[in-house]
Write a structure and sequence with these properties.
371 residues, mainly beta, 5-stranded antiparallel sheet, 2% helix, globular, disordered N terminus
């Protein structure tokens, strides 16, 4: 794993990552990362930085009956509970070690030394006993694009400009349509400014606090001729991220939409996608198993095909094992040493019809550690 400097001075050109000094309260590096959105095109993007954490510590005990953990740090009661209008952030717990390493779970309540969390079906809080955790606020539409910065604002709801699409995390099938989309409305008197559902626009029904999950990707569609960009400032994740890979049906193929959660390009072996058990290798190139697609941010178009797709080939003698392009499969010519997954971009894991039903987890290990 690459050491990530904690001092000002590392600048990477991939979407303009700059890593600066460490967080003043904790030891992980912070920085900023710019993402460009092309005019007249769909741009897939993920969240390569976390917002600054608010707590970290150890879980001292758990209560599975109430899904509550007791921690070794002190908070104000209800400090991390979402309240419309007054507490506009929703928080999550990131598990840094143990059997649920990389798991993130939404905080639903907190006391002075307790957090109640939603495990979302991923076991119970008993699985977290003794683990190290960090508490972060989710990115939201309002914090990622404050006051509509980074997109083209809509001033007339009958002439929509930029739209942010959310990928489909629950439906069965492939090539799934976007279930949710949002626009930023810039009203004439500023009284109704904010983020709105583009499918159900109701003036005043602002949804600025809509959360963006750290394990998936999103799409910005800009109008023709209107380029824009957004700059994220936050923490570089040096922990793992546990991403569910859910196949709800054994008879249908399934697309799972995943975001690269780190601010640098990585190779397929660096992601541990295969090693995590969330991806099935192909042993016969004429009967392809799981495939991972890469979003195309280079071509200017909407509803465009993926840039490329890859499989893992498990050869009979192990001599030709590795990751390969599905469009140019040549045994021995693997792409293991190529950074095929760009920073802050979108991936789709496609599982074929006939593969087992159920949920596995991609433990996406960070390509960096702090020095």
């Amino acid at each position: 794993m690459k050491p990530l400097p904690l001092l000002l001075g590392l600048s990477l050109t991939a979407n303009s990552l700059v890593v600066g000094q460490e967080n003043s309260s904790y030891s992980d590096p912070v920085g900023y990362h710019s993402i460009d959105f092309q005019g007249g095109s769909d741009t897939g993007f993920s969240l390569p930085l976390f917002r600054d954490r608010v707590e970290q510590g150890l879980i001292q005990s758990v209560d599975a009956g109430t899904s509550t953990i007791t921690v070794n740090f002190t908070m104000t009661a209800d400090e991390y509970v979402y309240q419309v209008g007054s507490q506009t952030d929703t928080y999550f717990v990131l598990v840094c070690d143990g059997t649920k390493e990389g798991g993130f779970y939404t905080v639903t309540d907190n006391g002075t030394d307790t957090l109640t969390i939603d495990m979302a079906g991923d076991g119970t809080v008993s699985d977290l006993d003794g683990a190290t955790i960090k508490v972060f606020p989710y990115w939201t539409l309002g914090t990622l694009f404050p006051n509509g910065e980074g997109v083209v604002k809509t001033t007339d709801p009958f002439s929509i400009q930029s739209v942010v699409f959310f990928t489909n995390q629950s439906a069965t099938g492939v090539n799934l349509p976007f279930p949710l989309s949002y626009l930023y409305f810039d009203s004439s008197n500023d009284s109704q400014d904010g983020w709105y559902s583009s499918a159900n626009f109701v003036p005043g029904a602002v949804v600025n606090d809509t959360i963006l999950s750290p394990d998936t990707y999103f799409v910005v569609r800009n109008p023709a001729g209107a380029n824009s960009s957004v700059t994220l400032t936050g923490e570089v994740l040096i922990d793992s991220l546990r991403t569910p890979v859910n196949k709800p049906s054994s008879t249908e193929a399934q697309d799972i939409y995943i975001g690269v959660p780190y601010p640098v390009a990585v190779s397929a072996p660096e992601t541990d996608l295969l090693e995590s058990g969330a991806f099935t290798a192909t042993t016969d190139p004429f009967t392809i198993q799981d495939v991972v697609f890469v979003f195309d941010n280079g071509t200017i178009d909407v509803n465009k095909p993926f840039l490329e797709s890859y499989l893992y080939f498990d050869s009979s003698d192990d001599a030709q094992d590795g990751w390969y392009s599905t469009s140019n499969f040549v045994p021995g010519a693997s792409v293991d040493d190529q950074k095929i997954f760009s920073s802050a971009t979108g991936l789709v894991v496609r599982k074929p019809a006939g593969s087992p039903q159920g949920t596995t987890f991609w433990i996406f290990n960070s390509p960096y550690t702090a020095q």
